[in-house]
Amino acid sequence: MDRARWRRLQPILDDVLDLVGDERRRRLDQACAGDPELRAQVEALLQADAETAGALKRAQRRVFP
């Protein structure tokens, strides 16, 4: 993933990381409208975070305070 793509993805990830269920889906629908690849990338990162018990969230907060 290049820097430009990460700059687009990162705020979306920040926005939805603590959301669940329908609220998360609605935000992703809005934020990724027209870009299914972006949505897939965000969802992959969310899944990885869920599988690692929040490690992504902790790392992101250290890198992007």
Describe the secondary-structure layout.
Elements: H1 3-16, H2 21-31, H3 36-51, H4 55-63
Helix pairs in contact: 1-3
Please sum up the structure shown.
With 65 residues, the protein is mostly helical. It contains four helices and no strands.
Describe it:
- The relative contact order is 0.16.
- The chain has one domain (3-16, 28-63).
- Helix 1 (3-16) crosses helix 3 (36-51).
- By secondary structure, it is mainly α.
- It has helices at 3-16, 21-31, 36-51, 55-63.
- The longest helix is centred in the C-terminal third of the chain and has 16 residues, at 36-51.
Number of domains: 1
User: Over the alpha carbons, how many angstroms does the gyration radius reach?
Assistant: 11 Å
Helix fraction by DSSP (H/I, runs of at least 4): over 70%
Bin the strand percentage: under 5%
Mean pLDDT: 89
Got a strand count?
Answer: 0
Query: Which structural category do the helix and sheet elements fall into?
Result: mainly alpha
Give structural attributes.
about 60 residues, 4 helices, about 0% strand, globular
